[in-house]
Amino acid sequence: MFFQNFIYDVSGSTSDRNVVVLNDIHIDIMDYIVPASCSDAQFRQMWAEFEWENKVTVNTCLTDLQQYLTHLIKSTNMKCLTPGKALS
User: Fold this and answer.
1) What residue numbers bound the domain in which 72 lies?
2) Pick from 9, 14, 57, 64: CA 20 to 30 A from residue 51's CA?
């Protein structure tokens, strides 16, 4: 969410400043995330660089791993880089 104001002066005006307050701007980051591909080596390098992102606690009612993975991919606009055969 962004908050924005326009502040301006009018020459010859007795007031110090004029302010126009704009409405909040809501941006959903998910609109800008698109699935992509990278090599295994590139992925591992990026994963190591962003170590703080490695640990995520998940609470879900889904018990099937494939079903959970499908849900996660759909919800985050991501792509699974691991071949389907390797997940079986």
Assistant:
1) 5-87
2) 64
Contact 6, 22 (CB under 8 A): yes
CB 21 within 8 A of CB 5: yes
56: which 2 tokens? 């995520």
Q: What is the mean pLDDT of residues 65-87?
A: 87
Other CB atoms within a 10 A radius of the CB of residue 29 amount to 7
Distance, in Å, from the CA atom of 2 to the CA atom of 6, rounded to the nearest integer, reads 13
| Gap between the Cα atoms of 22 and 4, Å rounded | 6
Amino acid at 73: I
Q: Do 20 and 41 meet the contact criterion of CB atoms below 8 Å apart?
A: no
User: Total structural domains in the chain?
Assistant: 1
pTM value > 0.70 = no
